[in-house]
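User: Predict Serine acetyltransferase's structure from this.
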Amino acid sequence: MKFSKDIKRYTDYSGKSALVMLLTQQGLWALLQYRFFNWIYTSSLPKILKWLLLGIGVLKLKGIEVLTGITIPYSATIGEGFYIGHHSGIVINAHAVIGKNCNISQGVTIGVSGRGEHRGVPTIGDHVYIGANATIAGKITIGDKAVIGANSLVVKDVEGGTTVVGVPAIKVSDNDSADYIL
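Assistant:
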């Protein structure tokens, strides 16, 4: 189950028990709600039951958003082992695709941008590290093991295994995310 992989990432980073992490980490609170309602969203439950439960989900996810400052719609696609380093100011578009074992920090926005055929949301690969207050927007692809530096604005594709920083973000090195992701 994906949520167990999420919890493992938190316990690996902190060295604390899963129970302590579940009681104290706002990122896990948001992920738990997201995983449950995403499971309903992708399930084959009867439509009327699914839409009733998703209606409840919208309200619960809004409560989590108000409480934690983390917006993760149930329709986003997020791989296992997702790690939110610090809560608050995190916005993930409902159509975003995020790979497995990714880390994001506070203030991150993963959203829609562009015009015409370039309008869309990002697809983020596996093992990607996204620094504090970074914005990734538009119909772009972030390659596996990329590093997005803090305060960067990413509006173009990023090669896997590279580090980008700045506004707009540009490649500054071939360093990958290995030092950031367990």
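Helices lie at 2-14, 18-24, 26-42, 47-68.
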